[in-house]
Amino acid sequence: MTDAARESDPDGRHLDYIGIDMAKARFEWGVHGARSTQSVTNEPAGFVALLADLREHRVGLIVIEATGGLEHALASLLLDAGLPVAVVNPRAAREFARSMGHLAKTDAIDALALAHYAHTLAHKADQAGVQVAPAPAHLEALQAMVLRRRQLMDMRVAETNRRQGPMRVLRKSIDAVIKTLNEQIDALDKEIGTHLDQHFKELDKRFEHIKGIGPNTCAAIVAFMPELGQISNARAAKLAGLAPLNNDSGSSRGKRSIWGGRSIVRCALHMATLSAVRFNPVIRPFYQRLLTAGKPKKVAMTACSHKLLRILNAMARSGKPWNPDLHGVTA
Predict the structure, then answer these.
(1) What CATH class is the domain 3-122?
(2) Terminus-to-terminus CA distance in the chain, angstroms?
(3) For residues 35 and 232, what is the distance between their CA atoms, to the nearest angstrom?
(4) Cut 0.85: pTM above it
(5) How do the domains of the chain map onto residue ranges?
(6) How do strand 14-22 and strand 59-65 relate by DSSP bridges?
(7) 17 class by beta-carbon count within 10 Å (0-12 exposed, 13-18 middle, 19+ buried)
(8) How distant, in Å, are the alpha carbons of 30, 111, 222, 232, 312 from that of 94?
(9) Does residue 121 contact residue 61 with C-beta atoms inside 8 Å?
(10) For residues 49 and 74, what is the distance between their CA atoms, to the nearest angstrom?
């Protein structure tokens, strides 16, 4: 490893930056500035081997690429060991790798590219949101239940679509599956409601008083936006993927658009907004004002979702109940 690739902490000790490429059967890790990587099985024995190796390093940051949930167990173990961890979006990681000249793609190359990414992230001026914070067990449980409900809903939509297909002779089978899925969704809704009542009762009650915010929307927001009340409105919008992003170059001014962020939160807010623009005493006039000003419906809906998120963030921060007079002051 070259000296240029290493940094020092305030005590003069060298810091190393680790990249971990996850796969179903194995994972591979490398150190920024090194040329070789190590690979072990994606199971407890492999986790122990990684921890043993990391004891020989002063870790500045560990970057793991999000891989469909395969990274959760290892990230939790590393966090429990007191190590700094960042779980990054695969698209962002790949774009960074290409920008750094890592055009080929293998597990070893990806691990070293992620280690390079770890070095870069650790030196960002704004460290907000870089490192993962250990999630409480009750929050992880709620996230798992909300994700499972979403999976069941997707399966029900798929089966319902198949029912309209040409194979009408299979309707009996399809109806049986739909019935089972309905039962599973109903049971899960009860579990989610009980869990919210046990662990997030006050926040859940405040949010559900907002017209448009139902139990399922509330569960998704509580589960996947735990930062609400502790971050700025701008940061919340970015996390939810509701912040309009510039697309300018030189004298050219491109059209702003939203993308990225936590899709499950954005989708939940969109569904809530569909109801809020009809019945919410704050969101409805705001939506009508935007339409009167000539804004396209899609733009107006996104702005309403953004406003609804700001309201939720303010309520979580202040601990105050829903007050249409208070939240209707600003556009």
Answers:
(1) alpha beta
(2) 54
(3) 41
(4) no
(5) 3-122, 137-199, 223-331
(6) parallel
(7) buried
(8) 16, 11, 30, 29, 33
(9) yes
(10) 12
The string of pLDDT tens digits covering residues 153-192 is 999 999 998 888 766 778 889 999 999 999 999 999 999 9
Which burial class, exposed, middle or buried, applies to 150 when counting CB atoms under 10 A from its CB (0-12, 13-18, 19+)? Answer: middle
Taking only the tens place, the pLDDT of each residue in 200-221 is 999 988 998 899 898 999 999 9
Burial class (CB in 10 A: 0-12, 13-18, 19+), 184: middle
